[in-house]
Design brief:
Helix content is 6%, strand content 40%. By secondary structure, the protein is mainly beta. The strands form 2 sheets. The protein has an 18-stranded antiparallel beta barrel. Strands 1-2-3 form a 3-stranded antiparallel sheet, with no helix packed on it.
């Protein structure tokens, strides 16, 4: 297996080099000026689709481009090395002249085509980090789009390579009972291969991932370490017009997938790949889609078993847990609002060998929900979601709810300043001694937007936040936010704190005060982030967060002087991340 990963990595580096060389040929922006011979208009560029020769006319219509005599159907890719064009005078003189493209140093710019009217109903949410990753993932490209002439006709193959490294510096991280500094390096490599269209209705895709951590002073967990594993491997039946077309003449397909899948849906709070984390959520099962993202309506249904990330052997499905649901997307009024009614459920049979107490329970949770997001003209954007949960948790009744609300405005200035306010709430267990469990379950959603430090997830929390964003250039983005955290119930836990809920150590129980005497104020944080895109293939992020401890954190530290390193509770977190994709 190691040999295959070395081959994939070497291929990625090689392709990046080739792609960079291609980019150097076509990235210039030539200025219009006289050239030797007639004034010729450039209307085809390297890597552009084939163009009918009758449309290739010069600026004064005295000359036109024709294709090589050896190719009667396609314009050759413009190259200064080996491609030739014919200049044909239409005056009847029956004369031709061959000109090498290298002699035409500067072409006048092409006339812009009329903007095509969009037909899609889909509108992205303006709320922070709530748009799911694309399918296939964003680092994947169809082979004919990567800029290599030999692959220009291969439209049926998707391919991608991605490598990410992140350095972190944490001081007095409250996720652990031990204080001091930690300076880990996280490495994550991905490779994707997908076949589409050429074998329709059958399609398939595979995605590999290798996740590792170095220089970490704590035992590695399945959130950080998962070497040489498969995160996607599925077959798909894809029927392009099974449900006809919508009123904008867009195909309404039916897609059925079976196998291993890693994907995101809705606002990523219940189904997420967890892009920040070094390992990825994935599932074994099936998924059925009626319609597609561009349609005015779409239905997404699934039944899956979450995959257990095993650090020393190949991952396997959790046979004790089924995750199922359906999401409706109504986009008819998407200029104003997109509505997403949905239902999710979990059914777990007790695992007598389960690592946590929750694993050893029979559980069944049902969650009907509704999300709506959109814009109020150019004045405000909004994103609202409410979820109610009911069912059983062992011998207890499960009764919980959660909601999120974000309202923002992007001002009409060159740097695109955006100001937004957010409030999130999720119930916690109100009474540890009754027969009711009120702790909201986040299912398989992401955690990071709740807290950069990963101290808070979507359970037992009240969290207001104000955020300010700037984008001075297309490559540069700046973010700043201030957030506060309170426990919704002072008698329930702060999830990921003081060695609680860590998959490699038994939970000592320090993250919950069943009496409620430690208070409900967790603390506040100032979070800063800078994003810069060096090239189309290289992205960097630099971030910093300072957490100021509240009464709950301070009191828990004081209450366990023999077990928890005594400190103020304040923490610092700094990181630098580099993401490189091959295409």
């Amino acid at each position: 297996m190691k040999v295959w990963w070395q081959i994939l990595l070497a291929s990625a580096i090689g392709i990046m080099s080739i792609g960079s060389a291609q980019a150097n040929v076509i990235s210039g922006q030539p200025q219009e000026r006289p050239v030797a011979g007639p004034q010729v208009q450039q209307v085809a560029q390297a890597g552009a689709p084939a163009v009918n020769k009758e449309t290739l006319k010069s600026s004064d219509d005295n000359y036109k481009w024709a294709i090589k005599p050896s190719d009667t159907t396609r314009i050759a890719t413009l190259s200064a090395d080996d491609n030739y064009g014919w200049l044909i005078k239409p005056s009847g003189e029956n004369q031709t002249e061959t000109i090498k493209l290298a002699d035409l140093i500067d072409f006048p710019p092409a006339r812009p085509e009329a903007a095509k009217k969009t037909t899609t109903y889909y509108r992205r949410a303006d709320s922070y980090t709530t748009n799911p990753d694309s399918d296939p993932p964003r680092y994947v490209r169809t082979l004919n789009t990567i800029g290599i002439e030999a692959f220009k006709d291969i439209t049926w193959l998707d391919i991608g390579f991605e490598f990410r490294t992140r350095y972190e510096m944490r001081r007095n991280d409250i996720r652990h009972v031990e204080g001091g500094f930690d300076n880990p390096f996280f490495l994550r490599s991905r490779a994707y291969l997908g076949i589409k269209e050429i074998l329709d209705p059958f399609r398939f895709a595979v995605e590999f991932q290798d996740s590792r951590v170095y220089n970490h002073k704590f035992p590695s967990t399945d959130q950080e370490n998962n070497p040489y594993d498969l995160i996607q491997g599925y077959g798909e039946l894809h029927f392009k017009q099974a449900l006809g077309q919508d009123d904008r003449k867009q195909d309404r397909p039916v897609r059925f997938r079976a196998g291993r899948m890693a994907y995101e849906a809705l606002d990523r709070r219940f189904i997420g790949r967890n892009e920040w984390r070094n390992t990825t959520n994935t599932f074994d099962g099936f998924r059925l889609n009626l319609g597609q993202q561009d349609n005015n309506w779409e239905i997404d249904m699934w039944g899956m078993q979450p995959v257990k990330r095993l650090q020393t052997r190949f991952d396997e499905a959790n046979n004790h847990l089924w995750f199922y649901g359906a999401i409706g997307h109504w986009r008819k009024w998407s200029d104003i609002i997109t509505l997403q009614p949905y239902y999710m459920g979990q059914k777990q049979t007790a695992d007598p060998y389960g690592f946590t107490a929750t694993n050893r329970l029979d559980r069944e949770i049902h969650m009907p929900s509704l999300r709506g997001y959109g814009r109020i003209g150019n004045l405000l954007d909004y994103d609202l979601n409410f979820s109610y949960q009911f069912g059983t948790n062992g011998t207890q009744v499960h009764d919980a709810y959660g909601y999120t609300a974000e309202v923002g405005r992007t001002f009409n200035y060159a740097w695109k300043p955006r100001l937004s306010g957010f409030y999130g709430y999720a119930t916690g267990d109100r009474n540890p001694n009754d027969n009711v469990n009120n702790r909201f379950d986040r299912f398989f959603g992401f955690a990071r937007p709740w807290s950069s430090d990963h101290y808070v997830i979507y359970e037992n929390i009240k969290s207001p936040r104000v955020r300010f964003d700037l984008q001075p250039t297309q490559r540069l983005g700046l973010e700043a936010s201030y957030v506060g955290f309170w426990l919704a119930s002072s008698t329930d836990r702060l999830f990921d704190s003081f060695d609680g809920n860590i998959s490699v150590t038994k939970d000592p129980g320090f993250n919950r005060d069943r009496t409620g005497r430690s208070g409900d104020y967790v603390g506040s944080a100032l979070e800063l982030r800078l994003r810069y895109q060096f090239t189309s293939r290289v992205n960097t992020v630099v971030g910093y967060s300072h957490f100021t401890a509240g009464d709950f954190v301070k009191n828990v530290i004081k209450a366990h002087p023999d077990d928890i390193a005594q400190r103020s509770g304040n923490t610092d977190f700094f990181y630098v991340e580099v993401l490189i994709s091959a295409f």
